[in-house]
Amino acid sequence: MRMLFSLFGIVLTTAVASAQPSLDIYYLDVEGGAATLIVTPARESVLVDAGWPGNGGRDVDRIQAAMKAAGITRIDHLIVTHYHTDHVGGVPPLLAKVPVGTVYDHGLMSPPHDPDYASNYEAYVKAVPQRKGLAAGDAIGLKPSADGTPVSLSVVAAHGKVLSRASAPRNARCSSVPAKPADTSDNARSVAFVLTYGAFDFFDAGDLTWNTEAELVCPNVNVPAVEVYQVTHHGLDASNHPLLLEALAPTVAVMNNGAKKGGSAATVKTLKSLPSLKALYQLHRNVATGPDDNTTPDLVANPDESPDAGHMVSVHAKKDGSFEVANHRTGEKRSFASAR
Ligand SMILES: [Zn+2]
């Protein structure tokens, strides 16, 4: 037996390594929009936002390419964080090409919603006759991994309301960051959630804006520390409240900015100042700002302005909280330990 093991040691090790269950997250490049594909250890799939419409079906093509890379043929759960074009616009064309299970959003709105986005909203409602509205405190039931490790997706904000737990610890720093003018757009109603697999946590808040972000951590801190943070609102500084980022204390941040959208210098500065942060990945280099206001070149998936490349960033997480991040342009993979 021992002989067999040493003979086939390499083969066995490889097989075991690739068979070890992981939670996989693919941050698709949809050129300043959002489309994040999550595949659980039980191979259940969650797509968060579906990018833009038009552009010759570019974003649906990129979603299908990522699905193929992940080895899945359907989307079990589709979460629409809010009704802006760069998030919901890709939903009708996606549904025409890909089987989709349950569709979730922050709830339908009788007017007024953002008048500028009314046509996308109407196209979405028409394309998806049955939806599930999510509220803060809701969870989307996901299957555990084969060894019984739970996978959970917990909604912490939706429709402008945030999760509030009386037992949550007080935040002593709330007066240190001023509020911004009230945001009446649909961004403030974005669905925000924490995805957990064993000791690994991921936070995604769509385009949630400053004052609502603040409510998540003031007066009580209602979010856990996470391993990976999807930089909210493409990195715009109307979002990414420093006290929320402090509470999330991410090890890695992934920013789904475009070459000329998001990636604000102020957000990059806040992220770089976090003691917890080991790496900031960007789907694009912000071509309008300098090297100091971007991450290091090796952590950029798409350094050029050309929209043809479409390289993604992916995260592969284990139940002990350790994870690997891949830049699909360079092929480089970095490993990170659990934050806990
Ligand atoms: Zn957006």
From TrEMBL:
<keyword id="KW-0732">Signal</keyword>
<dbReference type="Pfam" id="PF00753">
    <property type="entry name" value="Lactamase_B"/>
</dbReference>
<feature type="compositionally biased region" description="Basic and acidic residues">
    <location>
        <begin position="317"/>
        <end position="340"/>
    </location>
</feature>
<dbReference type="InterPro" id="IPR001279">
    <property type="entry name" value="Metallo-B-lactamas"/>
</dbReference>
<protein>
    <submittedName>
        <fullName>ComEC family competence protein</fullName>
    </submittedName>
</protein>
<dbReference type="InterPro" id="IPR052159">
    <property type="entry name" value="Competence_DNA_uptake"/>
</dbReference>
<feature type="signal peptide">
    <location>
        <begin position="1"/>
        <end position="19"/>
    </location>
</feature>
<feature type="domain" description="Metallo-beta-lactamase">
    <location>
        <begin position="32"/>
        <end position="206"/>
    </location>
</feature>
<feature type="region of interest" description="Disordered">
    <location>
        <begin position="288"/>
        <end position="340"/>
    </location>
</feature>
<dbReference type="InterPro" id="IPR036866">
    <property type="entry name" value="RibonucZ/Hydroxyglut_hydro"/>
</dbReference>
